[in-house]
UniProtKB/TrEMBL annotation:
Name assigned to this protein: Reverse transcriptase zinc-binding domain-containing protein
Annotated InterPro entries: RVT-Znf
A Pfam family annotated for this UniProt entry: zf-RVT
Domain of life: Eukaryota
All residue ranges annotated as the Reverse transcriptase zinc-binding domain in the record: 1-50
């Protein structure tokens, strides 16, 4: 997540800064230039996927209105569910970014595309798997990790 926060992942705009001469178009929406902010915040594909997940992780409207990925991550970091049964919301942003990045790479490198519904399902599966794996670890360690 730190690479997303500091906008260091190898999106097309970052590759251009490193001297690669590539056409810059988002692999997900195919409309805008690809940047970290675009990919995780303003991309129509990402927003559709995000909106599909909102009812399940209780994402507040104020978070959705934030236009900078680093700011969104900072707000989310301080979002603490009152009920431990809502821990899925704590890992949501990690799963969202990871699965969106994998979808982007699948389109770029394998010419394989999934719909926002499929990506949302993959995010839900990742959350479930990560929480199940965390349950096998010392519960106090898991609780401390999810609260930080």
């Amino acid at each position: 997540m730190w690479m997303v926060f500091y906008k260091k992942i190898l999106t097309l705009d970052n590759l251009k800064k490193r001297g690669f001469n590539l056409p810059n178009r988002c692999a997900l929406c195919k409309d805008e230039e690809e940047s970290v902010n675009h990919l995780f915040v303003s991309c129509t594909f990402a927003n559709e996927t995000w909106n599909l997940m909102r009812p399940f992780v209780r994402i507040e409207d104020s978070i959705c209105k934030v236009s900078d990925v680093a700011d969104r991550l900072m707000i989310w970091q301080h979002h603490k569910p009152a009920d431990p049964s809502q821990w899925s919301s704590r890992v949501f942003l990690h799963a969202f970014c990871w699965k969106l990045w994998l979808e982007r790479n699948s389109r770029v490198f394998s010419d394989s595309e999934n719909s926002p519904y499929v990506v949302a399902f993959k995010i839900a599966c990742a959350i479930s798997q990560w929480l199940a794996a965390a349950a096998k670890v010392d519960r106090e360690v898991t609780k401390n990790w999810l609260e930080c």
